[in-house]
Specification:
The protein is an alpha/beta fold. The protein has 16 helices and 22 strands. The protein has helices at residues 43-60, 65-81, 83-94, 98-115, 118-121, 157-168, 183-195, 209-217, 230-242, 265-277, 300-308, 327-342, 378-381, 397-406, 420-429, 465-471; strands spanning 9-11, 14-16, 23-27, 34-39, 126-131, 134-142, 145-149, 172-176, 202-204, 221-227, 246-250, 255-259, 287-293, 346-349, 368-371, 388-394, 409-410, 413-416, 435-437, 453-454, 457-458, 473-481. Belongs to the aldehyde dehydrogenase family. Residues 15-478 form the Aldehyde dehydrogenase domain. It holds the Pfam family Aldedh.
């Protein structure tokens, strides 16, 4: 074991070896090769990281906005320069294809570019002479030490959703990456320091529930951003909110696509297949349910054929989809497929027996399609987080909308149609936070914010974009009046009026 590289903690600008006695292994999901050991940080180490952030905040919050912006201009260039290395690292530990890994990094890079624009994002408001000689203005000030807890499925994009915007707005940050695949995250952190993030402004700890709870409880953490499962996110939201913190939690999903019979068939089937099975279905924005309306129900054979044509393999070979993250994830997905059959859904395509030449130990699951899926079935009620597509039938668009709105989750949805009227009706009546019209995975660009809703989100403000600037800042309103030296108000005023 000792010959394996160990993942370091970042505390006060130094990469340090943890003193913990508890370690986990980072495993390549295509080969089961152990890539590194990751520490479950001790309580003292978590406290030291938070203390480093608190100490650095006194200086960082006073740093000119242009200085902060230039760091992220530098970081986006460093990420571009190191794209191939970052993608290879991500693929080795997470499993997604090299092309998808570059996409993961690029969508995070867009947020870094947005952070470089902080000068125009963190502007307050000003009104002159709101009462006699009285002016009012607001300033958007940083909160202090903020924390981020990120999931295994996007180890580049989601950390880059968090720490650049938090730091650009003047906060310091403690990041807890997924312990399953922290290597690419740590490389991005190294690049951030190289770009000029000062010591203590960005800190990293690794761990499981104990570290998460320490971040939720510590009085010096002012805000927590979380992306991950509904179970953990609900725990984080409740525990951190009770401790008086701001919290934003992006959680589980069950995203539906509505396919109308007037859709461009080839485009719709291609988009749906890619969105259901890309990244082996391990996206909180994956389209895991398709509601085929009317005559579109006859498209099942063509959808199955498209799914069968996808190549499963190790991410390094750039197939269409790679392995799922772990042996446990593979077993869980297999178990849900078995439940789907037992519950009476029709298994139109079974991906359980897929084998990949040269990778006998990979956690591979092939594209799997169920038809005749009904509410109440396990495969419909649970987020499978694997390459499994559930097909449902509806006679009308209204019936499809009713089905989607009855599901508790609200992360994303899409409609495939060539009818502007149908699309307009759908976007207005659907109770889901992110809507795609002929766009299968409608994650907004960073000019906007990620706006999942209902059971997919706890907290009012979403990641990145304008909303996260509000999340990471406190609005302070200043009301001021300056008197001429010889001016006299004449009498004591005891009323609330500003006249």
């Amino acid at each position: 074991m000792s010959h394996l590289p160990t993942v370091k903690l970042l505390i006060g600008g130094e990469f340090v070896e943890s003193r913990t006695t508890e370690w986990r292994e980072v495993v390549n999901p295509a080969t089961q090769e152990v890539l590194a050991r990751v520490p479950m940080a001790t309580a003292d180490e978590v406290a030291a990281a938070i203390a480093a952030g608190k100490a650095a905040f006194t200086r960082w919050k006073k740093t000119p906005i242009g200085t902060r912006a230039r760091i992220f201009l530098k970081l986006q260039q460093l990420i571009r320069d190191n794209m191939k290395e970052l993608a290879a690292l991500l693929t080795a530990e997470q499993g997604k294809t090299l092309a998808d890994a570059e996409g993961d990094i690029f969508r995070g890079l867009e947020v870094v570019e947005h952070a470089a624009n902080i000068g125009t994002l963190q502007l307050g408001e000003y009104a002159e002479n709101v009462a006699g000689g009285v002016d009012t203005y607001t300033v958007m000030q940083p909160l202090g030490v903020c924390a981020g807890i990120t999931p295994f499925n996007f180890p580049a994009m989601i950390p880059l959703w968090m720490f650049p915007m938090a730091i650009a707005t003047g906060n310091t940050f403690v990041l807890k990456p997924s312990e399953q695949d922290p290597l690419v995250t740590m490389r991005l952190v190294e690049l951030a320091l190289q770009a000029g993030v000062p010591a203590g402004v960005l800190n990293v700890v690794h761990g499981g529930p104990d570290v998460v709870n320490a971040l939720c409880d510590h009085p010096d953490i002012k805000a927590i951003s979380f992306v991950g499962s509904t179970r953990v996110g609900t725990h984080v939201y409740n525990r951190a909110s009770l401790a008086g913190k701001r919290v934003q939690c992006m959680m589980g999903a069950k995203n539906h696509a509505v396919v109308l019979p007037d859709a461009n068939k080839e485009q719709a089937l291609n988009q749906l297949t890619g969105a259901a099975f890309g990244a082996a279905g391990q996206r909180c924005m994956a389209l895991s349910v398709a509601i085929l309306v009317g005559e579109a129900q006859q498209w099942l054979p063509e959808l199955v054929a498209k799914a069968q044509s996808l190549r499963v393999g190790a991410g390094i070979d750039n197939p269409d989809l790679g392995p799922v993250i772990s042996c446990a994830a593979r077993e869980r997905i297999h178990g849900l497929i078995e439940r789907g059959v037992a519950d009476g859904a029709s298994l139109a395509l079974d991906g359980r027996d897929v084998s990949v030449a040269g990778y006998p130990h990979g956690n591979f699951v092939g594209p799997t399609i169920f038809s005749d899926v009904k509410p109440g079935m396990s495969i419909y009620e649970q987020e499978i987080f694997g390459p499994v597509l559930c097909l449902m039938a509806a006679d009308t668009l209204d019936e499809a909308i009713e089905l989607i709105n009855a599901n508790p989750n609200g992360n994303g949805t899409a409609i495939f149609t060539q009818s502007g009227a149908a699309a307009r009706c759908f976007q207005e009546d659907i109770d889901v936070g992110q809507v795609g019209v002929n766009v299968p995975i409608p994650v907004p660009v960073p000019l906007f914010s990620f706006t999942g809703s209902r059971a997919s989100k706890l907290g009012d403000l979403g990641p990145y974009g304008k909303q996260v600037v509000l999340f990471y800042t406190q609005t302070k309103t200043v009301t001021s009046r300056w008197f001429d030296d010889d001016a006299s108000s004449g009498k004591v005023q005891t009323t609330i009026s500003l006249k």
